[in-house]
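Long-time lurker. I teach an intro course on protein structure, and each term I like to show students one example going from raw sequence to a predicted 3D structure in token notation. This year I'd like something fresh instead of my usual example. Would anyone be willing to generate the tokens for the chain below so I can use it in lecture? Attribution to the forum is fine with me.
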Amino acid sequence: MARYASNSNTLPAYQRIENDLRSKIRIGDWTEGALLPSRHTLAAEYKVGVGTIEKAISKLLADGTLRASDRSGTYVNEIANRTKSVVAGIPDEPVRKTGVLGIAIGVDHSNFSPSDSLDIWSRVITSKIEQRFRDKVARVIVRNAYSDDRKPWSLAETVEQLTLSGATILCVDNLNTGFGMRTIAGLDALVKAEKWPIVCILPVEHHGNVPQVNCNLAQSGFLAVEHFVRSGQKEMTLLAPCPFEWVQDRIASAHKAVSYFELPSSYLQVVLGETELARRGAVFSQWGYENARQLIRSGTLRSAVFAINDAVAYGVLRAAEEASLVPGHDFELIGVDDTLQSQERGLSTFCTPVDEVAFEVEHLLDRVIDRSHAGMRVNLRPVLIERSTTRIIDATRAAR
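-- Reply from a regular --
Happy to contribute to a lecture. Here you go:
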């Protein structure tokens, strides 16, 4: 039977469940690496809808307490129980520090832009990886794709700089494709030569023999449709400002979900800009504002809105405010990226599961070093961070 603290009854159901799941992990009911019961099993145990369980678990996935595998389920992350051993007075076994980890990043960190989500997540993931390896290696070296004279380095040049600096273990963060996907194929020869243990972080799967952790935000289109279906929405608007390849991938993913859930083609209304806009947040936001305002005025903005990224969603928020509409009440709104502004504005959004990425990089490198799982791939899904612009999926809707 699910246990709730008596003084937490005023909290939303998903938050009470989140707290209870954390408690189970903390006291050892679920140990490190344990497989959680299915969402449906937990929903029956807590007497709530599957959507409420999904929301509770999404919080634990986002902060790294849990990790998810598309094939086998959701597990207790190994970092989740460290507090338990300290509280019990049991020190962790000392880890012998050996080797130097070199991290190559396909983004210019010296010219970091807080408005660029690619820069944000690259920086956060790098920091997480550094934290996880701090007690395992002698030191960590980070090199981005730009040299001191501001000329971009190729991936080969960046790797060369790392190895000349003493790196013996390599992690290539190409999540934002700053090195280009074609150059990743050049690492196949290094992997085959077994000169250095290498793991890549990629936005899409690379079909060579490079061990890799993938998180494809294109899946956000499918996951957005899935969320709206579970919340009982009967129709959806997708706003996309321009026909970039990554935009088309997210649209295709949404269409795939419409087919998967056997929805009528009319379920999905796609508003797609025809020109390739400059890839700047302000431009995307203005496009989102103008198109959302037009849809609101014509009465054709649907009750569920998926903005192709957070910048577009900010424009929708502006148009909604002018029309005295309240996202999360009058309609649902989801973006992609989870920038700092999204957190401040309460925007529900998909993002890269950074703690999971760092966790999988660490474990994949361990396996590569031991030569036990060379060429292994780990595929992660984006995580939906729900805030005020979406509704809590209650038991009644989830059961439909």
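Some talking points for your students: The longest strand covers residues 100-105. Residues 218-351+387-396 form a domain with the Rossmann fold fold (CATH 3.40.50.2300).
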